[in-house]
Amino acid sequence: MMHRAGLFRFHEDMENMVQVLEVPLSGGQASAVFLMPFHVENLARLDKLLSLELLSKWLERTNVTSVAISMPKANISNTLSLQKALSGLGLTDAWDQKAADFSGVSDKGKGKLHLGAILHWASMELAPQAGKGEVDVEENVGRPKLFYADHPFVVLVRDNTTGALLLMGALDHAEGELLHDEL
């Protein structure tokens, strides 16, 4: 588990029983937003509840607050085939060997080249970054709120300028070490 205390944007939604924590990423152009149920549960309820409108409401309600964070080191990754999505957008000839025309790419000519697959791979590593966003605990953090991520949570990466969501993932189980440790 990684531990950090500092001043972060934080909100507790008592009605939906969800903690919202926003942590700036290095460079300050993006932030990681963590959504965690109050109690240990799978993410089905949060997944059903989550909408862009509710996320916007939660983010508007965050305030800079003293927060003590404990979170597992993790790497969240996924590979996704884009063929169905791109075909739905009208990119259909590229998959058909007879209809595909990649003559501008290769001198092999029409009918020789076509796409077999387009894959998108994304990975996000949750790891400590020394000196990034830390606040001196003794001087600046009084009675901090606790964000103790020893159970499933959702993480989003959003652009701080546009608010666009760049990446979304979830940690619903840990492989290897147990998540729980003593603070």
TrEMBL record:
**InterPro entries in alphabetical order:** Serpin_CS, Serpin_dom, Serpin_fam, Serpin_sf, Serpin_sf_1, Serpin_sf_2
Q: Which GO terms describe its molecular function?
A: serine-type endopeptidase inhibitor activity
Checking Pfam families in the record gives: Serpin
Q: Where is the Serpin domain?
A: 1-170
Q: Where is the signal peptide?
A: none
Q: What cellular-component terms does GO give this entry?
A: endoplasmic reticulum; extracellular space
Query: What Gene Ontology biological process does one annotation of this record name?
Result: collagen fibril organization
Q: Which Gene3D superfamilies match?
A: Alpha-1-antitrypsin, domain 1 (2.30.39.10), Antithrombin, subunit I, domain 2 (3.30.497.10)
PROSITE patterns to which the protein is assigned, alphabetical: SERPIN (PS00284)
Protein's name in the database: Serpin domain-containing protein
